[in-house]
Amino acid sequence: MDDRWIWWRLAWRNLWRNRRRTFITASALAFGYLASVTMIGLWRGMLSEMIETGTNLVTGQLQIHAPDYYPERSMYATLGGREGIDVDELLRLTRDIPGIVAASPRVYGGGLVSSGSETVAGLFVGVDPDLEVEVTRLLQTPAEGRAPRAGEREILIGRGMANVLDVGPGAEVVLVVPASDGSLGNDLYRVSGVFETGLVALDGSFGILPIGSLQELMALPENRIHEVAAAVEDPFSAAALGDSLAAALGASGLDYPVLPRPWTVFRAELAEYASLAGAVNAIVVGIIFIMAVFGVANTMLLGTFERRREFAVVRALGTQPGNVALTVVYEGFILGVVALAAGALISVPVLYWLHNYPPDLSAMFGDFTMSGTVVRPVLRAEYSVDGPVISAVALLLTSILSALYPAYRAVKIMPADALADI
Amino acid sequence: MSRGSLRAPSRLRFAISLALLGSFYSPLPAHAQSAREIIDLVDQLMRGESSTARITMDIRTENWDRSLTLRTWSLGADYSLIRVETPQREAGMATLMAGQEVWNYLPRVDRTIKVPSSMMAGSWMGSHFSNDDLVKESRLVDDFSIEIAFNGEREGTEVWEFVLTPLPEAPVVWGKIRYQVRKEDFMPTWTRYYDESDEIVRTMIFSEFRVMGSRLVPSVMTMVPADKPGETTVIRYHELDFDVDLDEDFFSLRNLRRESR
């Protein structure tokens, strides 16, 4: 018999002396694990949903501008300056970066939209309708009508603007935009459709038109654009992708400077919220397991009291106090491992269900807005590696921590007193 | 400007001043007049009850230069109409100011558009004047408390410098205005506009004083924004007539469209 394992075997046997108690304690830990993993998964699900809806509506997750475009957003600060650029080349280079899935060129202009006697201020975005749908979803399913078609003088406007102007698909509106040559660009456009995001600022002032059509209105040549917006595979990697994009563009011999901006910059509040949520996660996981510590410690303490005389006997027979303590700690650790196995077993189906068939609470709550982003109250859990790992570490720490005090008590047992207690 | 050419306007100025000021004008030294009275007089000299003009507006910006020829009509402080004559591409564009409202007529699409209040601070036709500048051309004495900040000789000319501070309820965007006026003929030489934090925002310089429409006026006004070095808008009067026969009906939306055909 290998002596090294004797204390482990003792611990293992002790654990099953009172099966019911061990089962209940292990269940508490296992459900603690389930709670922790599920909660982290749901938080992540909500965060990704927020980031996704917050970025794939109009902004994309990564943008490229001329370095002087922000903060003023002057219409003259186009990529490549006055000379403009080879737009197709920039789009191709951007799409070639691994991790970037789509890229779309944009032109911005501010002006007026007018119909009948009503006039409102508008922010116009010129897009390539075919490329834009791969990056953002504003064009994908207008509430009414359809997206504007390339080459047509058409505009997709928000519900708020449509209501103020009292127009719908098919109506004619006048667009007035200060042009790049100092004149006042103005022309008639047909409303192709109406979008509805639930965001007042967007629905009330955004107008989306084919890029060429807006360039013509603003007297900008085709090779002058303000922005390339890109969609990335993993939103949490957007900042790193921005850096590698800048490096790749520089290396490819582009003779003009570009400045990438990830969503963590232009939606900084979302990024802050994400890191805040991470901290809240840690606190809640901490609370779950601190509660477990007391429950488990209580059970183990009972167990050691029950075995007072046994401890006294083994001590009287010459066992080192340290080894007695070790048995108790091992017992806690084994309990933790058993609980972890059970917890993992029950967590897998729950997570799978929450990931693939998330309960939709829209019926109860409706959509709500958070940090300027519409969030659907859908309880979808996102898989992650760190969630289960952090929870497992927390669980094992809990089981060891909660065995420390009982171990200390076991060591403190005076063999003579305990044995005299018969 | 030579002494000789100032002669006629100088006499004329007297006549006009007397007519406008009526009884309170006196041959006392100028500082005996209150600051308000002087500003009010300058205001009225510059505007007249009604006027028509043909002007050029030369706009120079960092990104482009352009020149517009405009025809203007005005009645009191409340009504004015501006019509673009050249460049050809923009000919017929017109702006009507009636009370606090600004309307633009766009001949290309044959539509009239009211400028929404959110855009009133925006530039008028790319110039360094805003739509608000066109509308808020109210009488200075109504909106500002006025003090004389300097009274004496500057660059060989006797001048007053006034500091105009907006009255508490006045619908004014400026924190302060400084205004320099020549004593000899009540001609303004410059106006400096400051924001709430006392930073200069822009300067209007008046020059080339000439008799137009039988009044002495600065025939050139140069607007210099403080935050855009090298940019200016220069307004040059080619024709100017005062007290022409205009009534409020002239400043109608119907007329805004019709006249441009």
Question: What would you note in describing this structure?
Answer:
The complex is a heterodimer of chains A (422) and B (261). With 422 residues, chain A is of the alpha+beta class. Chain A has two domains: 3-55 and 270-420, no CATH class; 62-266, no CATH class. Chain A has 15 helices and twelve strands. Chain A has a six-stranded mixed beta barrel with strand order 2-3-8-5-7-6, surrounded by four helices. In chain A, strands 11-12 form a two-stranded antiparallel ribbon. The radius of gyration of chain A is 32 Å and the shape is elongated. The mean pLDDT of chain A is 88. With 261 residues, chain B is an alpha+beta fold. Chain B has a single domain, classed as outer membrane lipoprotein receptor (LolB), chain A (Clam). Helices cover 18% and strands 44% of the residues of chain B. Chain B contains five helices and 13 strands. Chain B has a 13-stranded antiparallel sheet. The longest helix of chain B is centred in the first third of the chain and has 19 residues, at 3-21. The relative contact order of chain B is 0.18. Mean pLDDT of chain B is 83; it is low at 1-11 and 18-32. The A-B interface holds A 76, 112, 114, 117, 119-121, 174, 176, 178, 180-184, 186-188 and B 59, 61-66, 89-90, 93, 104, 106, 108-109, 111, 113-116, 118-119, 122-123, 125-126.
Shape of chain A: elongated
Largest interface comes to: A-B, 18 and 25 residues
CATH superfamily of chain B: Lipoprotein localisation LolA/LolB/LppX
The top-level CATH class of chain B is: Mainly Beta
Low-confidence stretches of chain A: none
The largest sheet of chain A, given as strand count, sense and whether it forms a barrel, is: 6 strands, mixed, barrel
What is the level-2 CATH architecture name of chain B?
Clam
- How many whole angstroms does the radius of gyration of chain B measure? 19 Å
Structural class of chain B: alpha+beta
Assess the beta-strand content of chain B as a share of residues: 35-45%
Task: Please give the domain count of chain A.
Answer: 2
How far the N terminus sits from the C terminus of chain B, by CA atoms, comes to 41 Å
Outline the low-pLDDT stretches of chain B: 1-11, 18-32
What's the pLDDT, averaged over the residues of chain B? 83
- How much helical structure, as a percent, in the residues of chain A? 40-55%
Total of helices of chain A:
15
Helix content of chain B: 10-25%
Q: What is the overall number of helices of chain B?
A: 5
Which whole number gives the mean pLDDT of chain A?
Answer: 88
SS-based class of chain A = alpha+beta
